[in-house]
Amino acid sequence: MASIRKILPPQPHYLTGYTGFVPGLKFHCGETYGRLTNTLFLDQRIKRSKKLVLLELGKPHEEWVSKEDKEALQNRCHDNKECRYTEDMVIGYTGHVPQYRFQDGHK
User: Which segments constitute the Ciliary microtubule inner protein 2A-C-like domain (predicted)?
Assistant: First the structure.
């Protein structure tokens, strides 16, 4: 049986001393959590250490949605008036809106 250490990420796999605070997070909306926190951590107006620990984000959304996927969505939604899938959907978004209660299952 393989050792558990072989499947775990190399240590340290976290930011040492990081407690989860993201300056300015509560004043922004409209982006995914990962993209927004990366933007805020790289903001030049915020004082921080000279040593960056973040990696560059990958390609923007427009570049990683393949042409075939766009065509498949357009073909699927061409005749369907209630098509809910679009190419600019936020991956992982479940529809939760904070402070919007008692609306589950209503159209």
Answer: 11-50
